Amino acid sequence: MVYKVVTPDSDEAFDAYYQFRWQHLRQPWNFPPGSEKDEYEQVAEHRMIVDGHGNIVATGRVHLNTAEEAQIRHIAVHPDHQRKGVGQMMLGALENVAREQGAVRAVTNSRETSIDFFKACGFVIEREAPNELGLLKRQQMVKKLAVTDSLVLHPKWCEELQHTWTDTIPITEHMGIRLHQYSGRTLETRASLNKNINIHGTMFAGSIFSLATLTGWGMIFLQLKEKKLSGDIVLGDGDIHYHKPITMKPRAICNIETLSGKFSPLEKGKKCCLKLEVEILDGDNPVAEFKGVYWVLPDNSKK
Fold it and tell me: What is the pTM assigned to this prediction?
């Protein structure tokens, strides 16, 4: 069976989504239609999983409580598709949305029947939560959203890069910049729009520039690891061209094919000059291109 995570994007899709939520989360407890909704629907991100025929087999929702904490709710899986990994697939999709929005912690108020599921997915019980609709007993469970969860290659290097950014370039933490994926040839980073939004509801141009320069910096950091070299990376020059504003999902991608220059001078204790390009996207839509010149200075501490 082929499953796909999708976002409801029409009135008809949302009607089907809410009908599914009511049917599997409310109707069994004799709650009326409409009880499946609450005051957070408009500010939440909604996801569905459909089968190969387009039938809904699972739903889920996530919204931010704070800039760092995401609340996961309303995960429902059709009985015919349970114990097939669909629940984990939905939870993973919602956790990825939370990371993209800058959250570092996820919480959920779990009924007794789903506590074991969330425990198996890395959540722990923090305290008792208010009863749902005045009847259903729940426990609040929490999970730290590790930055390495969606990385493909060299997760330890990627975790070291994230810590290096946090410790030596504090703006990365304030901007919610996270290393999303590294394949050895492609590095993708993402930032929190909520932490970089201006009065027009778009991302600050300066934040876009910072995201681009840090992505290029990160690619060189990881290439140094690949080549078993070390050095201090500094930006020599940067040029960016903006085409469209970012209004949804800030992403930056650097491909190894754009990297030019030689690392060999570092082996002789000399600095090297490297050039690369970074593409900035809003979701899947290209919005800016960055060209950077970086210098890597020899690590004199190892002499």
Answer: 0.55
> In this structure, which amino acid lies at residue 234?
V
Could you report the per-residue pLDDT of 251-289, keeping only the tens digit for each? 999 999 899 999 999 999 999 999 999 999 998 899 999
Q: Any bridge partners for residue 169, and if so which?
A: none
Please name the residue that has the structure tokens 């019980």.
125
